[in-house]
Amino acid sequence: MFEAMELDCVFLETNMSMKKRYHMVYECIPLPREVGDMAPIYFKKAIMESDEEWSMNKKLIDLSSKDVRKSVPKGLPYFSVDFGLQGGFAHIIEDQHKFPHYFGKVLWCERSIYQLFSVL
């Protein structure tokens, strides 16, 4: 479907609030192909800068060789991004109260606003 429109897809998965109620959100965001090619760079940088400075868990988990279910310990909240056939990244959320549930979408909004003002 997106291939015919020359679009790439980025899949965002956020799994939080596991103690209160199990809550997972999975989203598909279509992007222009040239933006989709740069998506791994932007997400890697954003994940490295997110959450706590000092964490108990690995900050960035590469999902190119394993599935997120095999990479993230069961019962821990996480954010993951998948770039289709290219694999993706995951991040274990240390503090659920500080980590925004809209993390992946904010990244694209900030990037779009930056591009808009750099053209002006």
TrEMBL record:
GO terms for cellular component: post-mRNA release spliceosomal complex. Residues 1-44 form the Cwf19-like C-terminal domain. InterPro entries: Cwf19-like, Cwf19-like_C_dom-1, Cwf19-like_C_dom-2. Residues 53-105 form the Cwf19-like protein C-terminal domain. Belongs to the CWF19 family. This is CWF19-like protein 2. It holds the Pfam family CwfJ_C_2. GO terms for biological process: mRNA splicing, via spliceosome.
